[in-house]
Amino acid sequence: MRIFAEMKIERWADIVPLTTFGIPARAAALVRWTDADDLRQVMADESLPRPLKAIGGGSNLLFTSDFEGTILLREAPEGERFVPGLPVSGAMVLDEFCRQAAEAGVRGPENLSGIPGTIGGALVQNAGAYGAEIGEFLAAARLFDTVSGEVLTVSRDWMRFAYRHSRLKEESGRYIIVDALFEFADDAPARLEYGNLSRELQGAEPTAQAVRDAVIRVRNSKLPQPAEVGSAGSFFRNPEVDPAMLEPEMPRFILPSGLAKVPAAWLIDRCGFKGARRGGAMVWPQQPLVICNPEFKATAADVVALENEIIGAVKERFNITLLPEVEHL
Ligand code: EPU
């Protein structure tokens, strides 16, 4: 039997630096872990308050109050690099992964450039942008099962990826991503259909690096800079509705299911919320799907007030119920 090493446990930890929203919150306990043995030790330690919550880059989270349980934060292996054909840890920063892949001339993840967060967090919610989703590239992942205490290897199919969804969301809290192996086709064409990527490339050859640069430029023009403005990216999901409910002027994308995906940004824009402020929280003027914390003075109550007001206004004007994309804790 292994003698457990001293684990790093912090009580009533300030967790603001662990999130991108910058909303004040503390956690009753914070544990930094490196391997599955650490997680077994956490499970055996009754002094650690429940629930347990694993986080990645904290880029899709809103703590609505202090967290009464234990936050589990993976310590990234030092100097980790992406090597084609080898797994990466769930703690690797997604954009670092995209940067190294583009540098190596590997095509696939370049459309995901600039998304904040880690590989683990991105897989849980199947992060996507500019016509790509991370789940489509997964070959296999190793997960720690908090029920059995075992590490299991799962396939892409097992993960049940869908729009901003995976099985890890269905069984919330049960599995923690340890590492992931991705596969990229050698001859995959560049994906430039979404938005104005082709225009942004200005006729340049769409190498992985050129597409990455174009994606970053488009993101920078629409989305707040994570270092300067607090936010958790898109705050709402794009709703999927019966096309019969749509008003003629509404933009839409018809899904294989027959449902229409409507840009929530358009609905929020039409309700006049661009730049709206409640307390320290603000609707980002260039992309109203984002609720932000521009001076890092917003409270969770400010954000939730704005959220509820937006949901109410969109419901009243369009009879569509927006669902948050950001996880509320
Ligand atoms: N729009 C407006 N007014 C605006 C901005 C946008 O009406 O001020 C409408 C336009 O019709 C535009 C449409 O919204 O064509 C879509 O906007 P955009 O292409 O910027 O993307 P999105 O649907 O709003 C989604 C993702 C983003 C991702 C972009 C690009 C979700 C919830 N969000 O946003 O993901 O970066 O596509 O692929 O699916 C995130 O998840 O945090 C995120 C930023």
Query: How big a fraction of the residues is strand?
Result: 15-25%
Average of the residue pLDDT scores: 95
Main sheet properties: 4 strands, mixed
Oligomer: single chain
Q: What's the helix count?
A: 8
Counting DSSP E segments of at least 2 residues, the number of strands comes to 19
Q: Ligands bound here? A: uridine-diphosphate-2(N-acetylglucosaminyl) butyric acid
The H/E string reads EEHEEEEHHEEEEHEHHEEEEHEEEHE
- Global outline: globular
Helical fraction equals 10-25%
Based on CA atoms alone, the radius of gyration comes out at 20 Å
Structural class: alpha+beta
Distance between the termini: 36 Å
**Spatial order of the strands in the main sheet?**
1-2-5-3
User: Unreliable segments (pLDDT under 50, ≥5 consecutive)?
Assistant: none
What would your notes on this structure say?
With 329 residues, the protein is an alpha+beta fold. The protein is built from 8 helices and 19 strands. The chain has a 4-stranded mixed beta sheet with strand order 1-2-5-3, covered by helices on one side. Strands 6-11-9-10 form a 4-stranded antiparallel beta sheet, with helices on one face. It has a 4-stranded antiparallel beta sheet with strand order 12-18-17-16. Strand 9 and strand 10 (151-155) form a beta hairpin. It is globular, with a radius of gyration of 20 Å. The relative contact order is 0.13. The mean pLDDT is 95. The structure holds uridine-diphosphate-2(N-acetylglucosaminyl) butyric acid (EPU). Uridine-diphosphate-2(N-acetylglucosaminyl) butyric acid is lined by residues 129-130, 194-195, 222, 233-234, 237-238, 251, 263, 265-266, 269, 287-289, 325.
